[in-house]
């Protein structure tokens, strides 16, 4: 917990920030950039008091690694923007603009890029691949944390991130319609023994017949050899097989050039099919041939299937793993089912050719397809959803009464989550409905139970956490359920709750920073404050915004104020400095704006000091014991990283400050209390969702098929 | 205690509270970006990724709350929906008045006041019954049944010939003209009129069903669905499809011979799965 680059935390640097050009409040503090460039000299502007604060706060793990932290964090943010760049370029021209960007993975330079074909945008399998990829990136981040790599680009300027921000907008804007692919990031190093094989992304350098030349990042293949016999040909397979987990897999080939009467075969095969003949003719290979329009399934005698194809034609090949059918398309037109009973076991996209200079380009989904495969995917999904609609619930609910099961699930969810009022209202309304059916009317008697008290207690605790008032939550918890947080199994929850308190303090701090250093203010120096009305208005705006974001802001402030008194000894020094500074700057008549401004300013400084002190407390409680687990250590480090940013809300780690995280911790505490009361830790409806997703996932991995087309969170829960 | 099957662990990881969504659903992402953009524009902030990602998580958890809200609204629990909005800080149902209207119609049908229900339907969505002849016919049939019911239940028993007059008049005036348009209508009308002939105690199951209150519930549900559809809303609560999907997914998984515990419980308590497979106590061992 430290602020070695102390700059704008304290009053002196405020003036330095405000002197900068308008709108640069997103700039990381100057000293940060210096550090990132590897020449960090700690706190060249730090006042003596800050320096001592730094020294005393050095206990937090970050202090030791202060210089590396921002670098590591920055690594995380870079691939994102980079990938969006790729997304845009890739969308325009295949194979262009993504080599040379090596930032995604500094270790594995030769990764193929990670991209998501548009029709697989909701695929659970692709989501899993992406998660793995993220994990890999995190490992790299950890690596960088331990061993800083000199930044590849010396300028870590924010201007680039603003550009990327803009690009992100446009990228999203384009994505709502049409088969535009999304390159997300680079892929982890492919490994064959890996259970989750990546999507095909390029032709394989190894799995090909000699005489074939791979060009353009593995997307083009050209025949440069010669075939002696009429039987002989040269085939190639992709780097990875078509995953049955996707439900449908589809790719397209553009015939860039076809030799006279040349024979080109497009299809798929297993690794066992030999590559010295066209796919389709060999065992375990299937293909559609351009010279006669026939399709061949593992035999040299084919059947008439579609039109012939020649230069500039775009041929698509797809497998529907639900139906076991393979199909082809020509220039966006569906040609019908070519093969049945295709079992999805390690089938690789494959092409073969015979004549010199025959030249094909493949699209594995990195650029938009000619055929509207997205629609086909959607149709499949509808078929499966319709099948689900016909399902009878008897297997999971013996009475088979869907309405009763639904009602039971909802009621249990409300009780479990502690939505007491809703539960009451629902029980009353269902009772009334029951009465209206039976045609009798008796006075409603609300059910009375012990659970109600617990529900109310749990709701109070949850509300406190959701409001960001961790102290109140801790107080409630320890008075209602004294031993829950002391239990060994809940130690992590307790730790995260304590960390959250720190984050809430920093959140508050960030809000104050936002309120005191908004762009208008930056352009005006402090001494102009009193003479015009703008700053006042600005501050009010800022406060409105806070109120909007955080209805309970006042409570939090009060709590923090309380704390400030407790921390008075530590903060005295700082606040004295702060007050002096302000008084000097605003030595004119006292307007309301000034008072407001001063108030906010003092709070900001005090808050920082209080947070610092609390961070030290955290470190004492969790970080200094002998055997600190790495997760705890990392968490503490991450917390420390907040200090590296002038305005944490605008930093790459802003996610930590997000209010959404409160929900997670509130869930955990709620679950722990429920378990202590002898109840399941999660609501049956939560369990049901999770079971469904797990069942679908397992089934799709095992057999491909229908389960691959449905996603709980995308299809069943989405508005 | 239950042994931990690898499947159980997987379920644990996938619980909404613990699972973070990482792959954007584009429609949602777009909505989010628009939302963020307007908010962020004021702050003129950089660094979107962190925020967008974090917001996904929020939405994700509140997805379950959304499903609950969707249920309360579409199945017509206006009071609960309002409370739920307050307790979760979800936006209140757009128009709780329209939910109440649906509830009133439902209650009227449940109570056998069909004429009143038809009037209300025509008042709020006049074109539904003009367009959906099936629904209209079923309502009228129910109305006829209700008329017959009052006759049959008449105190003093044994209704006389004259007592049947209102039923016959209603049938000839309202239902008979529609009967030729669809063979099923004719059959239904015949069946309903037969209620007048049989004495109560000799009625077969087929006729008893017509007098069962479950028919009221069914018609009430159909009306509710029609109104929702007519308003361009989801015609049924999402949670129902979710529950079916859970059932479907298990049968698919078992058919694919995925390695699963012998029984997968929801944790709802006593009324779920009373050892349907016949191997008692298996759920505890698995």
Mean pLDDT of chain A: 68
Radius of gyration of chain A: 31 Å
Structural class of chain A: alpha+beta
For the largest interface, the chains and their residue counts are: A-B, 114 and 99 residues
Whole-number count of domains of chain A: 5
Sequence of strands across the biggest β-sheet of chain A: 3-6-15-8-9-10-11
**Approximately what portion of the residues of chain A adopt beta-strand conformation?**
5-15%
Regions with little confidence, pLDDT below 50 for 5+ residues of chain B: 17-59, 274-286
Domain CTLH (chain B): 98-155
Protein name (chain B): CTLH domain-containing protein
InterPro entries (chain B): CRA_dom (IPR013144), CTLH/CRA (IPR024964), CTLH_C (IPR006595), LisH (IPR006594), Ubq-SigPath_Reg (IPR050618)
Function (chain B): Involved in the proteasome-dependent degradation of fructose-1,6-bisphosphatase.
Tell me about this structure.
Chain A is α+β, with helices and mostly antiparallel strands. Chain A folds into five domains: 70-186, no CATH class; 203-363, SPRY domain (Jelly Rolls, Sandwich), CATH 2.60.120.920; 392-443, no CATH class; 459-676, no CATH class; 684-716. Chain A has helices spanning 11-18, 30-36, 48-57, 61-65, 69-92, 124-146, 158-175, 373-389, 402-417, 420-438, 450-466, 470-480, 491-516, 519-523, 534-549, 553-566, 568-585, 592-623, 630-641, 654-657, 660-676, 684-703, 712-716, and strands at 113-116, 182-186, 203-208, 212-215, 220-223, 234-238, 248-257, 264-269, 285-289, 294-297, 303-304, 314-320, 325-330, 333-339, 348-353, 359-363. In chain A, β10 and β11 (303-304) form a beta hairpin. In chain A, α13 (491-516) packs antiparallel against α18 (592-623) and α13 (491-516) packs antiparallel against α21. The two termini of chain A are 42 Å apart. Chain B has a domain at 96-230. Chain B is 65% helix and 0% strand. Residues 17-59 and 274-286 of chain B have low confidence and may be disordered. The interface between A and B is large, with 114 and 99 residues. Chain B: Residues 98-155 form the CTLH domain. Chain B: It holds the Pfam family LisH. Chain B: This is CTLH domain-containing protein. Chain B: Involved in the proteasome-dependent degradation of fructose-1,6-bisphosphatase.
